[in-house]
UniProtKB/TrEMBL annotation:
Keywords: Isomerase, Metal-binding, Zinc. The active site is at 198. It comes from Patiriisocius marinus. This is Phosphohexomutase. GO terms for molecular function: mannose-6-phosphate isomerase activity; zinc ion binding. Zn(2+) binds at residues 103, 120, 178.
Length: 322
Protein backbone atom coordinates (compact mmCIF):
# COMPACT_ATOMS: atom_id res chain seq x y z
CA UNK A 1 0.00 0.00 0.00
CA UNK A 2 1.31 3.45 -0.91
CA UNK A 3 1.27 5.41 2.31
CA UNK A 4 0.28 9.04 2.68
CA UNK A 5 -1.87 11.15 5.04
CA UNK A 6 -5.41 10.17 3.98
CA UNK A 7 -8.34 12.55 4.37
CA UNK A 8 -11.98 11.54 4.07
CA UNK A 9 -15.01 13.57 3.05
CA UNK A 10 -16.93 14.56 6.21
CA UNK A 11 -20.42 13.06 6.51
CA UNK A 12 -22.60 15.78 8.02
CA UNK A 13 -25.51 14.68 10.19
CA UNK A 14 -28.48 16.92 10.96
CA UNK A 15 -29.72 16.54 14.53
CA UNK A 16 -32.63 18.02 16.43
CA UNK A 17 -30.05 19.36 18.91
CA UNK A 18 -27.50 20.51 16.28
CA UNK A 19 -26.18 24.03 15.78
CA UNK A 20 -23.90 26.18 13.63
CA UNK A 21 -20.44 25.72 15.15
CA UNK A 22 -19.38 22.91 12.85
CA UNK A 23 -19.76 25.51 10.10
CA UNK A 24 -18.64 28.72 11.79
CA UNK A 25 -15.86 27.30 14.00
CA UNK A 26 -14.71 24.14 12.21
CA UNK A 27 -15.53 25.36 8.67
CA UNK A 28 -17.59 22.38 7.55
CA UNK A 29 -19.77 22.96 4.51
CA UNK A 30 -23.07 22.74 6.37
CA UNK A 31 -26.33 23.31 4.54
CA UNK A 32 -28.08 24.74 7.61
CA UNK A 33 -27.74 25.42 11.34
CA UNK A 34 -29.02 22.02 12.47
CA UNK A 35 -25.87 19.99 11.82
CA UNK A 36 -24.91 18.24 15.03
CA UNK A 37 -22.20 15.82 13.91
CA UNK A 38 -19.43 15.61 11.35
CA UNK A 39 -18.54 11.96 10.87
CA UNK A 40 -14.88 12.23 9.92
CA UNK A 41 -14.11 8.53 9.49
CA UNK A 42 -16.92 6.00 9.39
CA UNK A 43 -17.48 2.39 8.47
CA UNK A 44 -21.11 2.46 9.62
CA UNK A 45 -23.43 1.00 6.99
CA UNK A 46 -25.17 3.68 4.91
CA UNK A 47 -22.51 6.15 6.10
CA UNK A 48 -19.27 4.85 4.61
CA UNK A 49 -16.42 7.37 4.36
CA UNK A 50 -14.94 8.27 0.98
CA UNK A 51 -11.32 9.36 0.48
CA UNK A 52 -11.11 12.96 -0.76
CA UNK A 53 -7.37 13.37 -1.42
CA UNK A 54 -4.39 11.73 -3.10
CA UNK A 55 -4.00 8.43 -4.92
CA UNK A 56 -7.04 6.78 -3.32
CA UNK A 57 -9.43 9.68 -3.87
CA UNK A 58 -12.94 8.40 -4.57
CA UNK A 59 -12.40 5.04 -2.90
CA UNK A 60 -14.31 4.11 0.24
CA UNK A 61 -12.78 3.04 3.51
CA UNK A 62 -14.21 -0.42 2.79
CA UNK A 63 -12.36 -0.46 -0.56
CA UNK A 64 -9.12 0.29 1.28
CA UNK A 65 -9.76 -2.46 3.83
CA UNK A 66 -10.65 -5.08 1.26
CA UNK A 67 -7.68 -4.26 -0.97
CA UNK A 68 -4.91 -3.49 1.52
CA UNK A 69 -6.01 -5.45 4.60
CA UNK A 70 -3.18 -5.63 7.19
CA UNK A 71 -1.19 -2.83 5.53
CA UNK A 72 -4.12 -0.52 6.18
CA UNK A 73 -5.49 -1.77 9.51
CA UNK A 74 -2.57 -3.63 11.12
CA UNK A 75 -2.10 -7.39 11.52
CA UNK A 76 -3.84 -7.84 14.88
CA UNK A 77 -6.62 -5.42 14.00
CA UNK A 78 -7.31 -7.13 10.69
CA UNK A 79 -7.42 -10.52 12.41
CA UNK A 80 -9.88 -9.05 14.94
CA UNK A 81 -12.09 -6.86 12.72
CA UNK A 82 -11.58 -8.07 9.14
CA UNK A 83 -13.10 -5.66 6.63
CA UNK A 84 -15.04 -3.70 9.27
CA UNK A 85 -13.41 -0.43 10.29
CA UNK A 86 -13.52 -0.52 14.11
CA UNK A 87 -13.82 3.18 15.02
CA UNK A 88 -16.21 6.03 14.33
CA UNK A 89 -14.54 9.44 14.51
CA UNK A 90 -16.66 12.59 14.93
CA UNK A 91 -16.82 16.25 15.76
CA UNK A 92 -20.01 17.20 17.61
CA UNK A 93 -21.83 20.51 18.18
CA UNK A 94 -24.66 20.58 20.72
CA UNK A 95 -26.74 23.76 20.48
CA UNK A 96 -29.18 22.15 22.90
CA UNK A 97 -28.90 19.14 25.20
CA UNK A 98 -28.48 15.69 23.71
CA UNK A 99 -30.86 13.11 25.11
CA UNK A 100 -29.95 11.41 28.37
CA UNK A 101 -28.83 8.08 26.98
CA UNK A 102 -26.86 4.88 27.36
CA UNK A 103 -25.19 2.48 24.93
CA UNK A 104 -25.01 -1.33 25.05
CA UNK A 105 -21.77 -3.21 25.57
CA UNK A 106 -20.43 -5.72 23.03
CA UNK A 107 -22.35 -8.67 24.46
CA UNK A 108 -25.74 -6.96 24.53
CA UNK A 109 -25.19 -5.24 21.16
CA UNK A 110 -24.24 -8.53 19.53
CA UNK A 111 -27.33 -10.29 20.88
CA UNK A 112 -29.79 -7.50 20.13
CA UNK A 113 -28.36 -5.82 17.02
CA UNK A 114 -25.55 -8.02 15.64
CA UNK A 115 -23.30 -5.02 16.19
CA UNK A 116 -20.34 -3.78 18.18
CA UNK A 117 -21.14 -2.09 21.46
CA UNK A 118 -20.48 1.59 21.93
CA UNK A 119 -17.73 2.72 24.25
CA UNK A 120 -16.69 6.30 23.53
CA UNK A 121 -14.73 9.31 24.72
CA UNK A 122 -15.06 13.08 24.40
CA UNK A 123 -12.46 15.83 24.19
CA UNK A 124 -13.96 19.26 24.88
CA UNK A 125 -12.77 21.66 22.18
CA UNK A 126 -14.91 24.65 23.17
CA UNK A 127 -18.05 25.47 25.15
CA UNK A 128 -20.47 28.20 26.04
CA UNK A 129 -20.41 29.69 29.51
CA UNK A 130 -21.62 27.24 32.18
CA UNK A 131 -22.00 24.37 29.69
CA UNK A 132 -22.24 21.00 31.37
CA UNK A 133 -22.59 17.29 30.81
CA UNK A 134 -24.50 14.50 32.54
CA UNK A 135 -22.50 11.53 33.79
CA UNK A 136 -24.16 8.76 35.73
CA UNK A 137 -26.49 8.85 38.71
CA UNK A 138 -26.14 11.51 41.37
CA UNK A 139 -26.50 8.79 44.00
CA UNK A 140 -24.46 5.70 43.15
CA UNK A 141 -26.93 3.47 45.02
CA UNK A 142 -29.73 4.42 42.60
CA UNK A 143 -31.22 1.42 40.85
CA UNK A 144 -31.70 1.46 37.08
CA UNK A 145 -35.46 1.04 37.52
CA UNK A 146 -35.57 4.80 38.19
CA UNK A 147 -35.17 5.27 34.43
CA UNK A 148 -38.85 4.42 34.04
CA UNK A 149 -39.84 7.71 35.67
CA UNK A 150 -37.45 10.43 34.48
CA UNK A 151 -39.16 13.74 33.73
CA UNK A 152 -38.50 17.49 33.66
CA UNK A 153 -39.09 17.88 37.38
CA UNK A 154 -36.64 15.21 38.58
CA UNK A 155 -33.99 14.83 35.86
CA UNK A 156 -31.42 16.95 37.73
CA UNK A 157 -32.20 15.18 41.01
CA UNK A 158 -31.47 11.77 39.47
CA UNK A 159 -28.40 12.44 37.32
CA UNK A 160 -24.97 13.84 38.09
CA UNK A 161 -23.95 17.00 36.20
CA UNK A 162 -20.48 18.44 35.67
CA UNK A 163 -19.43 21.77 34.18
CA UNK A 164 -16.89 21.41 31.38
CA UNK A 165 -13.71 23.28 30.52
CA UNK A 166 -11.86 23.46 27.23
CA UNK A 167 -9.33 20.61 27.14
CA UNK A 168 -11.32 18.30 29.43
CA UNK A 169 -11.59 14.65 28.36
CA UNK A 170 -14.09 12.00 29.41
CA UNK A 171 -14.12 8.25 28.87
CA UNK A 172 -17.66 6.86 28.58
CA UNK A 173 -17.73 3.05 28.75
CA UNK A 174 -20.75 1.21 27.41
CA UNK A 175 -23.41 1.13 30.13
CA UNK A 176 -22.62 4.63 31.46
CA UNK A 177 -25.61 6.99 31.53
CA UNK A 178 -24.57 10.27 29.93
CA UNK A 179 -25.53 13.35 27.91
CA UNK A 180 -23.59 16.18 26.30
CA UNK A 181 -25.15 19.47 27.29
CA UNK A 182 -26.02 22.61 25.34
CA UNK A 183 -23.08 24.70 24.17
CA UNK A 184 -20.46 21.95 23.94
CA UNK A 185 -18.20 21.47 20.90
CA UNK A 186 -16.35 18.17 21.16
CA UNK A 187 -14.26 15.59 19.38
CA UNK A 188 -15.69 12.11 19.86
CA UNK A 189 -13.96 8.75 19.41
CA UNK A 190 -16.06 5.60 19.66
CA UNK A 191 -16.51 2.04 18.58
CA UNK A 192 -18.20 1.60 15.21
CA UNK A 193 -21.81 1.64 16.33
CA UNK A 194 -24.80 3.93 15.95
CA UNK A 195 -26.87 2.31 18.71
CA UNK A 196 -28.27 4.72 21.29
CA UNK A 197 -30.91 4.01 23.94
CA UNK A 198 -32.68 7.23 24.94
CA UNK A 199 -33.78 7.61 28.55
CA UNK A 200 -35.08 11.18 28.43
CA UNK A 201 -35.25 13.71 25.56
CA UNK A 202 -36.23 16.94 27.34
CA UNK A 203 -39.85 16.68 26.11
CA UNK A 204 -38.92 18.26 22.77
CA UNK A 205 -40.76 17.68 19.51
CA UNK A 206 -39.87 17.88 15.84
CA UNK A 207 -41.48 20.23 13.32
CA UNK A 208 -44.45 17.88 13.07
CA UNK A 209 -44.97 17.90 16.84
CA UNK A 210 -43.64 14.36 17.33
CA UNK A 211 -41.39 13.31 20.18
CA UNK A 212 -38.44 11.02 19.49
CA UNK A 213 -38.78 7.45 20.73
CA UNK A 214 -37.45 6.51 24.15
CA UNK A 215 -35.95 3.09 24.91
CA UNK A 216 -36.59 2.61 28.61
CA UNK A 217 -36.56 -1.19 28.81
CA UNK A 218 -33.37 -1.38 26.73
CA UNK A 219 -31.76 1.36 28.82
CA UNK A 220 -32.45 -0.49 32.05
CA UNK A 221 -30.85 -3.62 30.58
CA UNK A 222 -27.81 -1.74 29.29
CA UNK A 223 -27.08 0.65 32.16
CA UNK A 224 -24.39 -0.03 34.75
CA UNK A 225 -23.39 1.64 37.98
CA UNK A 226 -21.53 4.95 37.83
CA UNK A 227 -17.85 4.58 37.13
CA UNK A 228 -15.66 7.06 39.00
CA UNK A 229 -12.88 7.53 36.44
CA UNK A 230 -14.83 9.03 33.53
CA UNK A 231 -12.94 12.34 33.64
CA UNK A 232 -9.37 11.76 32.52
CA UNK A 233 -6.34 13.61 33.82
CA UNK A 234 -4.26 15.13 31.01
CA UNK A 235 -0.71 16.38 31.50
CA UNK A 236 0.54 17.24 28.01
CA UNK A 237 4.19 17.96 27.26
CA UNK A 238 5.53 19.52 24.08
CA UNK A 239 6.27 17.07 21.26
CA UNK A 240 5.27 14.01 23.27
CA UNK A 241 2.30 11.64 23.09
CA UNK A 242 0.53 12.21 26.41
CA UNK A 243 -2.00 9.52 27.31
CA UNK A 244 -5.69 10.32 27.72
CA UNK A 245 -7.36 6.90 27.33
CA UNK A 246 -5.97 3.41 26.96
CA UNK A 247 -8.59 0.71 26.54
CA UNK A 248 -9.35 -2.47 24.63
CA UNK A 249 -11.33 -0.38 22.15
CA UNK A 250 -8.93 2.47 21.41
CA UNK A 251 -5.97 4.41 22.72
CA UNK A 252 -6.13 8.20 22.58
CA UNK A 253 -3.20 10.49 23.31
CA UNK A 254 -2.74 14.22 22.83
CA UNK A 255 0.32 15.68 21.15
CA UNK A 256 1.07 19.34 21.89
CA UNK A 257 3.21 20.04 18.84
CA UNK A 258 5.68 22.93 18.66
CA UNK A 259 7.76 23.54 15.53
CA UNK A 260 8.87 20.09 14.29
CA UNK A 261 8.14 16.69 15.77
CA UNK A 262 9.04 13.32 14.22
CA UNK A 263 7.49 10.12 15.54
CA UNK A 264 8.41 6.55 14.63
CA UNK A 265 5.42 4.20 14.32
CA UNK A 266 7.33 1.19 13.00
CA UNK A 267 6.64 -0.79 16.20
CA UNK A 268 2.92 0.02 16.27
CA UNK A 269 0.69 -2.59 14.65
CA UNK A 270 -2.20 -0.22 13.90
CA UNK A 271 -3.46 2.58 11.72
CA UNK A 272 -3.21 6.01 13.38
CA UNK A 273 -5.79 8.79 13.26
CA UNK A 274 -4.91 12.42 13.92
CA UNK A 275 -7.70 14.82 14.92
CA UNK A 276 -6.60 18.45 15.03
CA UNK A 277 -8.31 20.13 17.98
CA UNK A 278 -6.29 23.36 17.97
CA UNK A 279 -4.02 25.15 15.49
CA UNK A 280 -2.67 23.97 12.15
CA UNK A 281 0.12 21.60 11.09
CA UNK A 282 1.68 19.95 8.07
CA UNK A 283 1.78 16.16 8.40
CA UNK A 284 4.28 14.21 6.31
CA UNK A 285 4.67 10.48 5.54
CA UNK A 286 7.09 8.98 2.99
CA UNK A 287 7.62 12.35 1.34
CA UNK A 288 3.86 13.03 1.07
CA UNK A 289 2.45 15.96 3.02
CA UNK A 290 -1.04 17.14 3.95
CA UNK A 291 -2.20 20.21 5.85
CA UNK A 292 -4.42 19.71 8.87
CA UNK A 293 -6.21 22.44 10.79
CA UNK A 294 -8.65 22.68 13.67
CA UNK A 295 -11.60 20.38 12.95
CA UNK A 296 -9.81 18.21 10.38
CA UNK A 297 -8.84 14.55 10.57
CA UNK A 298 -6.15 12.45 8.88
CA UNK A 299 -5.62 8.68 8.82
CA UNK A 300 -2.16 7.12 8.49
CA UNK A 301 -2.17 3.46 7.34
CA UNK A 302 -0.58 0.83 9.56
CA UNK A 303 2.40 0.28 7.24
CA UNK A 304 3.71 3.81 7.89
CA UNK A 305 6.90 4.31 9.85
CA UNK A 306 8.07 7.90 10.32
CA UNK A 307 5.48 10.69 10.58
CA UNK A 308 6.63 14.31 10.64
CA UNK A 309 4.71 17.29 12.04
CA UNK A 310 5.65 20.87 11.22
CA UNK A 311 3.79 23.72 12.90
CA UNK A 312 4.11 26.85 14.95
CA UNK A 313 1.64 25.33 17.40
CA UNK A 314 -1.04 22.63 17.26
CA UNK A 315 -2.83 20.20 19.53
CA UNK A 316 -3.59 16.86 17.91
CA UNK A 317 -5.43 13.82 19.23
CA UNK A 318 -3.60 10.62 18.29
CA UNK A 319 -5.88 7.57 18.08
CA UNK A 320 -5.10 3.91 17.40
CA UNK A 321 -5.93 0.38 18.55
CA UNK A 322 -2.99 -1.42 20.15
Amino acid sequence: MNTYPIKFEPILQEKIWGGSKLNTVLHKNCANDLVGESWEISGVQENISQVNNGEYKGLSIVDLLETHKEDFLGNKNYARFGNEFPLLIKFLDAKTNLSVQVHPDDTLAKEAHNSFGKTEMWYIMDHDEDAEIILGFKDETTESSVLENVNSSNVYDIFNTEKVTKGDAYYIPAGQIHAIGAGVLAAEIQQTSDITYRVYDWDRTDDAGNKRDLHIEESISASKKTLSDCKKSINPSFNTSSEIVQSDYFTTNIIDVKHQYIKNYSNLDSFVIFMCVEGTAVVGVDGNIENISTGETILIPANAELVTFNTESAKILEVYID
